[in-house]
Amino acid sequence: MSTFTTRRGRPLPLGLTSTPDGHNFALLCRHGTRVTLVILPDGGGNTPMAEFSLHPRQNRTGDHWHIRVIGLPVTFCYGWRVDGPRTESTRFDPTRLLFDPACTMLSDGAGWASTCEVDPQRTHRRSLAHRGTRYNWDDDAPPLIPLEDSIIYEFHVRGFTCHPSSKVAHPGTFRGIEEKIPYLKWLGVTTVELMPVFEFDECECPFTNPDTGETLVNFWGYNPIAFAAVKAAFAATAKEHGQNHEFREMVKALHAAGIEVILDVVFNHTGEGDDRGRTFSFRGLDNELYYLLDDSGRYLNFTGCGNTVNCNHPVVRDLIMTCLRYWVGDMHVDGFRFDLASILGRDRRGNVMVEPPVVESITEDGVLTDTKLIAEPWDAAGLYQVGGFPFGRRWSEWNGRYRDDVRRFWRGEEGFVGAVASRLGGSSDLYQQSGRLPRHSVNFITCHDGFTLNDLVSYNEKHNRANGEDSRDGSNENYSWNCGAEGETTNPEILALRQRQARNLMTTLMLSQGVPMILAGDEFLRTQKGNNNAWCQDNDLSWLNWELVEKNADFLRFVRELIALRHRHPVFRRRRFFTGEFRRGEARSGEKRSETIPPRIPEEAGPFPPTGPVRPAEAGLSGETRDSGSPVMTPLPAAPGLADIHWHGVEPYKPDFGQKSRSLACTLDGRFTGREHDTDYRIDTDFYIALNAWHEPLGFRIPSAPTRRPWRRMIDTARPAPEDFIAEGAGPVVPDGEVYPLAAFSVLVLISEP
Question: Contact, 236 vs 170, CB < 8 A?
Answer without folding.
Answer: yes
